[in-house]
Automatic annotation (TrEMBL):
The lineage of its organism: Bacteria, Bacillati, Actinomycetota, Actinomycetes, Kitasatosporales. Residues 283-363 form the GHMP kinase C-terminal domain. The keyword ATP-binding applies. GO terms for molecular function: ATP binding; galactokinase activity; metal ion binding. It is an enzyme of class 2 (transferase). One of its GO terms (biological process) is galactose metabolic process. The gene is galK. It comes from Streptomyces globosus. Residues 13-60 form the Galactokinase N-terminal domain. This is Galactokinase. Residues 96-181 form the GHMP kinase N-terminal domain.
């Protein structure tokens, strides 16, 4: 994150709100290496923060107004009364930052209004957690503005509560934990039950590797009911098995558990249990200095998301197949699914060829060319000015 980004939002703040902000904060998007749809099952994940981030400038107000302006939101400034914030009361993108302020107040914290100006480089709808980045940027800004002194997991929980209860998306906590807790050069081994984290070194350059993000440009809306149905199915399965969550089922107990479940729940449970195991294997390979061994785990994870969990789509399947055929060590969809992005682990010298092969496959299928960026493990949410 550069001084240019901080300066740009300061300038935007002065233009929209007048005067100077009290500070500038940033929170990144994330890419999840492995561990998809495990967080709301109390399981494990291995995300990393991206250089792409939400950057915001903010200043407290004493009149109870929350004034929100986004560089991506057109000329309008959303003006809300903090005392009137409630689920269902805010429409559009503003429900994410407004929801964080509401969630902090729900925790009994004495926070009031603010002038906020924000800009984002996280692609929306690409499975890179643009909403979590927005929520976490507001959370760390309010923590600084109002001197809350909240621990990082508390900020993540408040941001998650905003997305669950205010924006209506029943996500787990992985996106928000990644945005606030990641460190540069590392992936984050997250236990979604305890919120314990371990920073796992993830330096690809020294191994001659790169991680590409291929944005299929297929946009998803996780509030449309599909995500909620998956979560409800997992919770129903855990209840039928007498478990607090599917995290409590391991590979040894999987065959007997699957035999005891209704057929429609079997693939969901199989994915969650095997995906948790893939996280363990990925962490072990990285700890042993073998990042190239992640490749087969990525491809295996995609097959599970496609065949068992049913959250892939034709475009993400095509991107994975084309990347692997062109020499990628492995690839999979990342994020909640129903579109979004694919990650591909490639040898540095083959990155352009892999990206080109995916673009050619998309053109042949009549799809718009995917956007390509490189995933570089970056710092989490923080004050930058």
């Amino acid at each position: 994150m550069t001084a240019d980004a901080a300066g740009a939002v300061r300038d935007g703040f002065r233009r929209v709100h007048g005067g100077s902000p009290e500070g500038v904060w940033a929170a990144p998007g994330r890419v999840n290496l492995i561990g998809e749809h495990t967080d709301y099952n109390d399981g494990f994940a291995l995300p990393m923060a991206l250089p792409q981030a939400v950057v915001l400038a903010a200043r407290r107000r004493g009149d109870g107004l929350l004034r929100l302006h986004s560089a991506q939101g057109g000329a309008a400034t959303a003006e809300l009364r903090v005392a009137d914030l409630a689920p269902g009361a805010t429409a559009g993108w503003a429900r994410y930052p407004a929801g964080v302020v509401w969630a902090l107040r729900e925790r009994g914290l004495a926070v009031g209004g603010a002038d906020v100006y924000l800009d984002s480089t996280v692609p929306a709808g690409a499975g890179l957690s643009s909403s979590a980045a927005l929520e976490c940027a507001v959370a760390v800004a309010y923590d600084g503005l109002y001197g809350l002194g909240l621990a990082r997991p508390e900020l993540a929980r408040a941001a998650q509560h905003a997305e669950n209860a205010y924006a209506g998306v029943p996500c787990g906590v992985m996106d928000q934990m990644a945005s606030v807790c990641c460190t540069g050069g590392h992936a984050l081994h997250l236990d979604s039950r305890s919120l314990e984290v371990r920073q796992v070194p993830f330096g690809l350059g020294g191994h001659g590797l790169r991680l590409l993000v291929l944005d299929t440009r297929v946009r998803h809306d996780l509030a449309d009911g599909a995500y909620a149905a998956l979560r409800a199915g997992c919770e129903r399965a855990a209840g039928l098995l007498g478990l607090p969550a599917l995290r409590d089922l391991d590979g040894a107990g999987l065959p007997s558990a699957l035999a005891a479940l209704p057929g429609e729940l079997v693939p969901l449970v199989r994915h969650v249990v095997t995906e948790n195991a893939r996280v363990d294997r990925a962490v072990a390979e990285l700890a042993a200095g073998r990042p190239e061994a992640l490749g087969p785990l990525l491809t295996e994870g995609h097959a599970s998301l496609r065949d068992d969990y049913g959250v892939s789509c034709a475009e993400t399947d095509l991107a994975v197949a084309a990347a692997v055929a062109a020499g990628a060590l492995g690839a999979r969809m990342t994020g909640g699914g129903f579109g979004g992005s694919v990650i591909a682990l490639v040898r540095a010298g083959e990155a352009a060829a892999v990206a080109g092969a995916v673009a050619e496959a998309f053109a042949a299928a009549g799809h718009a060319a995917p956007a390509v960026l490189e995933a570089v493990p970056s710092p989490g949410a923080r004050r930058i000015g």
